[in-house]
User: Fold this.
Amino acid sequence: MSTQKVHIVWYKRDLRIKDHGPLHKAAESGLPVLPLYIVEPTLINAPTFNPAHWTFIRQCLIELRENLAKLGQQLVVRTGDAVQVLSLLAAEYDVEQIWAHEETTDLRSFMRDDAVRDWAKTQSIPFDEMPKNGVVRGLSLERRDAWKSIRQDRMHKPPWHTPEALKPVVGIAPGHIPDHDELKLARNQRELQPAGESEAEKMLQGFLLWRGSKFIQEEAIHLKAPAASSRVSPHLAYGTLSIRTAVQEVRKQLKNFKHMPPQEKRQRGKLWVGSLRLFETRLLLRDEHMQQTEWNPSLEIAHEMSGFDGLRPYGNEGWPMALREAWETGRTGFPLVDASMRFLNHSGWLNYRLRAMVVSFAAQNLWLDWRGIAPHLAQSFTDFEPALHYVQLQQLSGTTLNRGIRWFDPVDEAKRHDPQGEFIRRWLPELAGVSKTYIFQPEHMSIADQNRFGCIIGRDYPAPIVNYQETTAKAKTQLQAIRSPQVKAFDSGLELPSG
Ligand SMILES: Cc1cc2nc3c(=O)[nH]c(=O)nc-3n(C[C@H](O)[C@H](O)[C@H](O)COP(=O)(O)OP(=O)(O)OC[C@H]3O[C@@H](n4cnc5c(N)ncnc54)[C@H](O)[C@@H]3O)c2cc1C
Assistant:
């Protein structure tokens, strides 16, 4: 063992140097700093993982390595199980302390962090995990006011100062950042948004200063949403942007606006303030959902309302494979659902409303259990954030204790947010020639119209895979029968037997 004392900064989903508490604290020690990223086989092999995620993460790691090198010690990359990697480093160096952020992600990571905590204890190495957002460990959301006040306090605090220099670890091999071939991953085929800390900053500032001026009006319009939305989600998910930075920057813009001369205010437009406020609210919602998962990590695998167990088929028995496949590939015969799924498969992103609509359709109309659709969506979203994902899926499936369930009729949604059917035509080329009259329900075309518009239903584009009205009515009845007694019991503090 080398006698070199080091502080390890263990990077996970916080791939940045700015506003990074663990990096700041390690540098403050005055000892050599070993910034570490572990390529974990359990992450790469998870059913929620997609090669596109690695494309994004790898780009982040490359930039992080460059940024840390400028400070004096480049990123060290190792592949393997976290405890094994840390044990090897502890055998090589005198590890005085390990720093990391608290993680609220999936059960796999909760267990991994538990194992590292146990190992560090047996080695008598202090392992300090610092909060990285508004999530408060050990606090239930039932104490909402207490939670909100702690979060508010954190969002007000100045960001952690980036160290001016890091004392290097003498003689350490930096390790290679593996590519897709080395990890035996298929090459990513998606058109992804750029990754890395500098891109995160550009994305945020571009949104706050000009792109987001009509966010409040355009974020639900299918063709405009990709440009009008902030698109910071993958950066928040992989931590190339800290949520505190996002909150403080939006507040700064709101404050600036108040003091702007009238002419400049006019230039920014009437919707500007509302758009910025909406963005700030979304950031709060993000932390709130994450707090829900932090308190109840089993939301990833189990219904929040136990009465839903067994309602929808799940597992091998009775699993409606054909319905799921049609939904995943955009072949359900519901143009907005299909266009959304194909756009998602191409880009790795959807706005909130379309995410909610495709999930609501899968859960209520195709009657698919959310656990069966979660992996496909997780793989599809570049911004996959387990702590948000499962809460959303359960809410839309009606299996949480939330008061109401939201319903999204794909035809109404299309008419409202894509009245000319442009989004649908863009992503469903087989419907490109169909007139506005039939674009939302092409199955209503006569045979003569099908020939005229060059789209034969059942050959070029499927007929609706289910009857929307009938499946909606059936879902409402079945959900209500289970939800009413459970919600009532929850409200009055009674415990209901599960099953
Ligand atoms: C079924 C379903 C699954 C989802 N899974 C994810 C996921 O895995 N990862 C993820 O980041 N978001 C998820 N969301 C939330 C939301 O749809 C995305 O955050 C948003 O579309 C990302 O685009 P944006 O960054 O341009 O968001 P903006 O609308 O610009 O919002 C800014 C930020 O606020 C947060 N946010 C926005 N909407 C919500 C919301 N409804 N709930 C909680 N936080 C929100 C996100 O961090 C987002 O980046 C999911 C939503 C649904 C309905």
In short: The CA atoms of residues 220 and 352 lie 8 Å apart.
